[in-house]
From TrEMBL:
Keyword terms: Oxidoreductase
Taxonomic lineage: Eukaryota, Viridiplantae, Streptophyta, Embryophyta, Tracheophyta
Transmembrane regions: none
Name of the protein in its database record: Ferric reductase NAD binding domain-containing protein
Residues in Ferric reductase NAD binding domain copies: 36-158
PANTHER family the UniProt entry points to: NADPH OXIDASE, SUPEROXIDE-GENERATING NADPH OXIDASE HEAVY CHAIN SUBUNIT A
């Protein structure tokens, strides 16, 4: 997600002496401190799963997001890893059927959503390179929930890109 930084000031109201009870744990003095406000301009969502059935519990949310995103701020990608990658002869037929059905009906045959499903794993290096080229000098939050092995790969790629381009990736992870 691309974020723009904005600094503003918060002014906390003074706590009066005439208050009947003030919890000392929440007592705050008047202070001025800068606060970062992040303005998200784009979000890129990647749902990667091994099993086609995993799309079922999430497809309502994906369709709602696709319908509500009138300004094309959110870019969604589904990946099914149990199928050979696109371009492989073994997945050519399903890829063609999927593309035809999506073009004609606007629904993906694999996920049952408006989001087209890609096959195999995402090429994360290409994904980050594409995002970096679209958002030079931006700070991008990369949020990941999944297996630790992929977390290590993504953290390493973020670090590599931070050293060679103007876009800065901040990696955040959550294990399940």
């Amino acid at each position: 997600m691309e974020e723009e930084e904005d600094t503003s000031t918060d002014l906390y109201p003074p706590v009066g002496r005439n208050k009947p009870h003030v919890d000392l744990g929440t007592l705050m003095r008047v202070t001025t401190r800068p606060r970062k406000v992040l303005k998200t301009t784009n979000a890129y969502f990647y749902w990667v799963t091994r099993e086609q059935g995993s799309f079922d519990w999430f497809k309502g949310v994906m369709n709602e997001i696709a319908d509500m995103d009138q300004r094309n701020i959110i870019e969604m990608h589904n990946y099914l890893t149990s199928v050979y990658e696109e371009g492989d002869a073994r997945s050519a037929l399903i890829t063609m059927l999927q593309a035809l059905n999506h073009a004609k009906n606007g629904v993906d045959v694999v996920s049952g959503t408006k989001v087209r499903t890609h096959f195999a794993r995402p090429n994360w290096k290409k994904v980050l390179a594409k995002i970096a080229s679209k958002h030079p000098y931006a700070k991008i939050g990369v949020f990941y929930c999944g297996a630790p092995v992929l977390a290590q790969e993504l953290a390493k790629l973020c670090h590599e890109f931070n050293g060679k381009c103007t876009t800065k990736f901040e990696f955040h992870k959550e294990y399940f």
